Amino acid sequence: MKYDKFQYDRIFEILKHKIESGLMPKGTMLPSFADLCKEYKVSNKTIRRVVAMLSDAGLIETKERQLSVVIFDQTDPANDHADNLKAPNVPIMTDILKTAEILYYPFICYGISLCNKSDWDIPEKIVRQLNPKLPNLFWKNSKLIWRFFIARCENELSLHIVDALGFLGVEYRENSFYSRVAYQQTLIDFIEKSRKETPTSDAIKDFLAYIHFITISRDDFRCYVPADSPFRIGVQGLDQWMKTAEERYSSVYLDILGLIAIGYYQPGDRLPSHAQMQKQYGVSVNTTTQAVQCLQKWGVVEATRGKGIFVSTNIQALNDIPLDPRLIASHIRRYFECLELLSLTVEGVACHAAAHVSDEQIHELIQRLDEAKIYGSLYQPAPIVLLEFLTEHIPYETLQSVYAIILKNYRIGRKIPKLINRANASRKLEIHRKCVEAANALIGGDRSAFAKQAAEMFTYTNQLIIEECKRLGYWKTVKDIYDGSQLWK
């Protein structure tokens, strides 16, 4: 596969979680290289790199011409690093917990709702392997159950964010054997009922509320973390999203193509210099050079040493660009994941953000939405205006960082060829109307209505974008290339 380079880390994490959770206990033989290549749809070279990483991590043992064997024993006291754990920084921990409450809850609910009868095999196996007599290991592996439900959504961006928050490294401590037994039995009962009949939304909420009541809300429930945990130093690396070199420079030239398509750059306009593009896109000079060379080759821009880079007067060249659909698919997948993350979480985020805005800031939002309407015939910027407003006023630092990533990925839409066009003017006006309606609710002081209407608008926009991508054939390309079930199966 063309994008093997960014696959190792993902496959390594999948296998690592299987081993550390006990799904692949000590003594288990890994599948052959050929079977792993087939399962993950990658090259032999990629699988060899993953196996080497697992070996270096002390998880497996490799021998020439033999299958690799799991050597990690989760019950071995040597794998318990409790002596190196410290108390979390309370303000930072509180910020992360509020972020997790707003982000995790809707994804866990959605993941549970997606599970069919056979999907429950994995969480059930993890739950039944929990040993209440080993509290540290019990709580460590119990976290993998909730990670499974998030992974079941098949949204790699959300899983990346979840892991970056550092919950897998948190060690819970309490002194009640019977509470662990009750916790395990509650999970088993819920899984058995869910196998027979998909739980209702209310049943899921009641289940999660009870789990919270018998764990984190207890007075004797304490947590300790490694010295470098996000719970002590804050969340790091949220924006370090895996990309190949080709994805990096294609992201630059696709954005420039999108800005030309919406009329931001006109024929003859001078584009930013290489130095300005490096700062704007956060890339190296090699990346911007490759991007401009591609645009030159297609006749979209003209570059003259000492003068600059200019948009070609031959705009027809935009319709004749030979873009690799697989490369476009990698950007569209990230765009879809961003849209889903936004749709599932924005109501809660909007409710919290609304509590921290002034009347003056609300009127500024209305003014920006009015200004955005003039571009509505080709490109509807109102959702971005609203998303920028929400991101700016989120009261939690970690959540604000997450939404900054969502905002950045939301702009991928203008990079997707033919997605921006002059068709469906009525739908674009409807999107703008919904944004204004939400803002007006905020002027009236109804935060709940504002949050609900903002969520409805983003859900509506998400549906329209998916519908258009299906019409353009992008949806099928993404589904053919990317198998999201690898995140949880």
TrEMBL record:
The Gene Ontology terms for molecular function here are: DNA binding; DNA-binding transcription factor activity
PROSITE patterns, A to Z: HTH_GNTR (PS50949)
Which Gene3D superfamilies does the record associate with it?
A: Winged helix-like DNA-binding domain superfamily/Winged helix DNA-binding domain (1.10.10.10)
- Domain spans labelled HTH gntR-type: 5-74, 246-314
Q: Which Gene Ontology BP terms does the record give? A: negative regulation of DNA-templated transcription
Quote the InterPro entries the UniProt record gives. Answer: Bact_HTH_transcr_reg, Tscrpt_reg_HTH_GntR, WH-like_DNA-bd_sf, WH_DNA-bd_sf
Keywords for this protein: DNA-binding, Transcription, Transcription regulation
**What CDD domains does the database record attribute to this sequence?**
WHTH_GntR (cd07377)
> Its domain of life?
Bacteria
- Please state what the protein is called: GntR family transcriptional regulator
Organism of origin is Hominibacterium faecale
